[in-house]
Amino acid sequence: MIRSALLCLAVAFAGAPAFAVCSDDVAELRWDGGKARFRVELAKTPEERSKGLMHRESMSSGAGMLFIFDGPRGVSFWMKNTLIPLDMIFIEPDGRVAKVHEGAVPLDETLIPGGDNIEYVLEINGGLARRLGIAEGAELRHPSLDQDHALWSCVGE
Hints:
Elements: H1 2-14, E1 26-31, E2 34-43, H2 46-51, E3 63-77, E4 86-91, E5 97-104, E6 112-125, H3 128-132, E7 139-141
Parallel strand pairs: 2-3
Antiparallel strand pairs: 1-2, 1-7, 3-6, 4-5, 4-6
């Protein structure tokens, strides 16, 4: 009985596409010589993006916030009301890191430009990008990317 149930499951999934290995609350980056994985909060609405990580006194080293825009655009960020130093990773629609701004200064209202073709911004603790080796050209994997055009797809490895 168990054997026939397993056989039915195997047949049912034989023609199905590979399962996604991504999760909405995880952002992964890879680059020559390394990988990093962050547990992320998502900022998808204008209100969520406007608030970002403001008023927080700390963030664990494996955490971050992933800002998701409705399409590629020019973006600039600032640190108004943000109490912790951050690294900002600006990412193009295909998941390629276009720019890394290290060590954004808490409470600074100076605009930090990210580029003109940005659809995602990952904020992590300040100094972490350098320590891990995250730089331009790294690739993001997250289910919010168009998987047909993502450099690092959620389907398979």
